[in-house]
Write a structure and sequence with these properties.
Number of strands: 5
Structural class: alpha+beta
Largest sheet: 3 strands, antiparallel
Order of helices and strands: EEHEEHE
Radius of gyration: 15 Å
Shape: globular
Length: about 90
Amino acid sequence: MIGRRFGQPPKGQAMKLRIRGHDLFARPELVAEAEEIDRLLSIILAANPRARSFVRIPMAGQGHLDREKLQTAVKYGFRIVRRHLSEP
């Protein structure tokens, strides 16, 4: 079970974000599928190589994460939070 932290809205409820001086609302989604996590982390790591220091899952080649290590991380609760812009 994933706990709820202080200031985090209930599951699926939009939360207020401030991006580039604008107040926006976004609904969080926890991504738990290994294939989608691999795809999203590939995008994140390509855009920000320093993020590699926070992601301890080794690369397997051709920009993909080691499948076995990634599945183990997901099994133990590794998730990515994807936010969808929405109305309040």
